[in-house]
Amino acid sequence: MTAGKERGDPRAVHKISTPPILKIYGFQCALVLLASAILFPLDKVMAYSSVIGGMISVVPNAYFARQVFRYAGAAFAREVARSFYRGESGKFVLTLALFAATFALVQPLQVFVLFMTYLSVMLLNAVILARYALPGNRI
Known about the structure:
The chain is mainly alpha-helical and 139 residues long. It has a domain at 47-134. It has 6 helices and no strands. The chain has helices at 3-6, 10-13, 21-39, 44-68, 77-105, 111-133. Helix 3 packs antiparallel against helix 6 (111-133) and helix 4 (44-68) packs antiparallel against helix 5. The longest helix is centred in the middle third of the chain and has 29 residues, at 77-105. The two termini are 28 Å apart. The chain crosses the membrane at residues 21-40, 46-64, 92-109, 115-134. It is found in: Cell membrane. Keywords: Cell membrane, Membrane, Transmembrane, Transmembrane helix. It is a multi-pass membrane protein. This is ATP synthase subunit I.
């Protein structure tokens, strides 16, 4: 028995498992890089626009997930709520900042490819997390 369980530490006894955040977002980054590598021989602007769009999706979502899963358990209800709100507001601000920086600093840019990759990675994120939520389907 661990020292945390002996003292009744609420962090040691919670039953909700944290999703494999690093694995999920690492997989998404790998797919974005693969798509970019496929596009590179066709058009270099499309390739880096794809990478930028994918990273604009992955980075804020990874920040949000990191914030949300910092605390767990009923004893940390206040911290869980705070970290959720902090993560959501940080995700929003980070997404806006990344889009603004991209449009201000990156020229030339394939805007259609940027947005399509952004939306594709957002959809991929939803599919992966929905699959993770199914009983018995752990990543």
